[in-house]
Amino acid sequence: MPNRLAKEKSPYLLQHANNPVDWYPWSDEAFDKAKNEDKPVFLSIGYSTCHWCHVMERESFEDTEVAEMLNRSFISVKVDREERPDIDYIYMSVCQALTGQGGWPLTIIMTPEKKPFFAGTYFPKKSKWGRSGLLDILGQAAVKWKSGREAVTEVGESIVNAVLNQLSGEEGDLRRDLLEKAYSDLENSFDSLYGGFGDAPKFPTPHNLMFLLRYWKRTGETKALAMVEKTLRSMYAGGIYDHVGFGFSRYSTDRRWLAPHFEKMLYDNALISMVFTETFQCTGDPFYRRVAGEVFTYVLRDMTSPEGGFYSAEDADSEGEEGRFYIWTPGEVTRLLGPEEGGLYCKIFDISKEGNFEGYSIPNLITSEDLEDDRRQSLEAYRQKLFLHREKRVHPYKDDKVLTSWNGLMIASLARSAAVTGDKGYAGAAVRASDFIWSRMRGNDGRLLARYRDGEAAFPGYVDDYAFLQWGLLELYEVTLKPQYLKRALMLLDEMQALFWDRERGGFFFYGSDSEQLITRPKEVYDGAVPSGNSVAALNIIRLARMTGREDLTDLAQSLFNAFAGTVSAYPGAHTFFLTAYQTAIAPSREIVIAGKAGCEGVRRMVEAVRREFLPDTVLIFRPDNGEAREIEELAPFTRDHGAIDGLPAAYVCENFSCRKPTTEVEKLIAIIRGDRSAE
What is the model's pTM? Predict the structure, then answer.
């Protein structure tokens, strides 16, 4: 018989709906039952494409012996971390504090009052490999609950007091030298041979690369740009990149980026494609534009819902094996391509009889030289044949829920690329996803919701949902120049302040004042797999302050910096997106207003000239030279005095609180934004 999870929408919870464990979703019902029956709560947190979550399910949660112990002595609760990141963040912080590490599946044992007294990650059913077995842990916890209740309760209280109260950020003052310290942290951990930072396992951490691009732009430090280029090219060459179907996996298990953990996450592909686009802007090298485009091909082909939203992830496993969908043998390739062409493909992409992954081969270009364009074009026909053949394999499981936060990141990346390259398809996909969220993922009161699946939007949005979608809307404004997206971004900011702002110490709480109140209300600033909501919010607020001319937003950004300055100062390298926002705040501001008739050739050329350049400290505003100007003037009153000149489109460039004489010449505008003083 299915358990209670069968009524849920979460793909992860539904994967456990037929376990013999008497699972509850996170609910008052579960904790009331624990109180009434005087049982501890066994909390298991994971997500649908998590490899070790699958392993623990097969070994333990599908096992009748484990299920019998859980059902007898515990109330068991399952949580999808992607639906409830608030719960996950709190209890993952506990696990990291107690054990020095974290990850999924996350295993917590706690009191009915939700206070944890045991934490860990994956456990086998029985003790092996030096890891305690789940049966042993459950047995010991059940005994302690019965015979050592006072000690267990004290442990829970001490954990709450010692760990959770630290999740609010430390105040202080940000200093410019933190930017140099963050750069030094990245430089010292940089792998000069294979790119990336640190040793295995290696994560892309694209916000580190975004920080380095801005550091290079601000200081002229060429090594910062070189580190970005080395990392992007190495990642692309490795097996972490899907050379047959495109898109990046979540991380590499080795230093060379060869063997990935094969799951593909929407957020990774959104942020990585953003960095490739920005690096194209910085270098003009078409390689970076091409790879970003390939990532979008994957997302628009495989990760886009009929309604326009973007799905969350694809699993690492298929047919019960990790990576089975992605690996090849020389025999398969030569049967498809023929002996000569197949042999060439295998040589270039490291597909051999010995293999590079458990007897099979992950296609990669680590030992191959950069492919010339003519050779790449000939290999493209081979890739398409392999792709069509691979499509017949059993596909990895796709988590088809739509998350507002991750969609915001993909909207931002698509919109930025559309602005830089002029690709209308990317802009259209970004608009469609944004409109889907705005129409289907808000409550009747306008409250943003976090998750959509199977016709249902649910869970009050978290700060990440508001900040990441706001980022997407700002990028959409700059590519479409339609004020409605700027207006929506400001609406979200008003809601963020009302629902999440800490009125005593500053900063945004992780979940809203109208959401379920957990054992603590944390504020996150650590830039981990994705930038924190506070970091992205800081950059958004600075951009909005400059786009609207509102001084109150400048003050809000300063309060946000002050709220976390102490925390960031302790380890700048772990807060690179927060410091990206700070770099933007301290850089000389630049506002460009282009005025003229919408759609005319002169306006188009001026706008494209601005978009081509990498100008992270610049905001672009368009003021139509007709009756439609009122909407943008209401949002940005300073544009009222900026109009066309003698019927010609005009560009007004204001830098560091001083405005230049407007120009009607595109070439002069380009010279100005490139810093040519002779363009005065």
Answer: 0.96
